[in-house]
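To the wet lab folks,

You asked to see what we're planning to order before we commit. Fair enough. Below is the target structure as tokens, and below that is the sequence we designed to fit it. If anything looks off to you, flag it before the synthesis order goes out.
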């Protein structure tokens, strides 16, 4: 499949994602998202640890980062009846959060090899958070800030900077809820239509990725047509849903010429909070697509999951096979 695991036909994409122009508005003409398969090349090194749950590779790894030093700033307003110590504490807490967020980005970039195709890995084992081991405070000041958009006097703000040494800590606990998924088949014949079904035991927000055998990744949900990705307990979410099907969108598996079979994946990530796991995209394409050799998408996903508590997200991976 080319929507990252299924071959989707989506506009302006590589061979691994052949796209028949998907209409941006309802039209009579049918459009098919075809999920295509290609040569398998997956790299499974993330933060210096191999997670080969679904993929087998030979890769060398760098030593994991011990600690990093970052600088960050925190700002807090003086609210009614708040003491100086209370405002200072809020500003310092914000500075610490910003420092840890910076450090997590460094931990992710420190991986010897980090490719978008690693979205199929067991991400709960890949995410690192940070613990501040040492901190030095500087540039503490109180300043008045005038909001030009609102009338009234200027607001007093407490501003402070921290230089922090942050150590990575790997997530170990499992999520506090279950997310389950399935396909209408586990073995597809060439050009068969595929449906994805997902359930969650608690309210959650879904990100659904399709990963082709050559490592190409397509974000199926949310998309330009269906931006609402919330699921309620034990509700069954089907992709493509009625809205997409009314636009002529279908997922059809497609085996590339010369291949005898392909093994691909659907990745489902559920979060309790409504966050976007990938960066913003200015293009007008219906589905965001990333090549397997790039690393921007997986870095976004790992960094944003690291900002959540362990119990606030979960994942599942749905493998399938394509045959002639």
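Sequence we intend to order:
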């Amino acid at each position: 499949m080319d929507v990252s695991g299924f071959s989707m036909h989506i506009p302006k994409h590589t061979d691994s994602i052949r796209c028949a122009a998907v209409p941006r508005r309802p039209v009579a003409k049918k459009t098919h998202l075809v999920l295509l398969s290609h040569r398998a090349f997956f790299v499974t090194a993330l933060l210096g640890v191999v997670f080969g749950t679904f993929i087998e590779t030979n890769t060398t790894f760098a030593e994991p980062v011990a600690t990093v030093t970052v600088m960050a700033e925190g700002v807090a307003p003086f609210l009614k009846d708040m003491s100086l110590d209370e405002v200072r504490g809020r500003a310092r807490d914000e500075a610490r959060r910003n420092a840890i967020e910076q450090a997590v980005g460094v931990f992710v970039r420190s991986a010897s090899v980090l490719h978008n195709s690693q979205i199929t890995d067991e991400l709960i084992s890949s995410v690192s958070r940070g613990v501040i081991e040492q901190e030095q405070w500087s540039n503490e000041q109180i300043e008045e800030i005038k909001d030009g958009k609102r009338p009234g006097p200027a607001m007093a703000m407490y501003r402070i900077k921290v230089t922090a040494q942050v150590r990575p800590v790997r997530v170990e606990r499992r999520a506090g809820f279950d997310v389950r998924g399935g396909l209408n088949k586990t073995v597809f014949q060439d050009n068969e239509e595929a449906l994805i079904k997902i359930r969650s035991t608690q309210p959650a927000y879904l990100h659904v990725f399709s990963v082709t055998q050559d490592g190409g990744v397509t974000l199926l949900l949310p998309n330009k047509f269906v931006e609402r990705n919330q699921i309620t307990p034990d509700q069954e979410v089907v992709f493509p849903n009625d809205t997409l099907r009314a636009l002529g969108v279908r997922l059809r598996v497609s085996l590339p010429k010369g291949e005898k079979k392909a093994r691909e994946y659907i990745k489902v990530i559920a979060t309790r909070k409504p966050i976007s796991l990938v960066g913003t995209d200015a293009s007008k394409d219906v589905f965001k697509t990333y090549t397997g050799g790039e690393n921007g998408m997986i870095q976004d996903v790992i960094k944003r999951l690291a900002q959540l508590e362990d119990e606030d997200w979960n994942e599942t991976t749905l493998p399938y096979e394509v045959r002639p």
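Structural context that might help your review: The CA atoms of residues 45 and 274 lie 28 Å apart. The chain is about 15% helix and 35% strand.

Thanks,
Computational group
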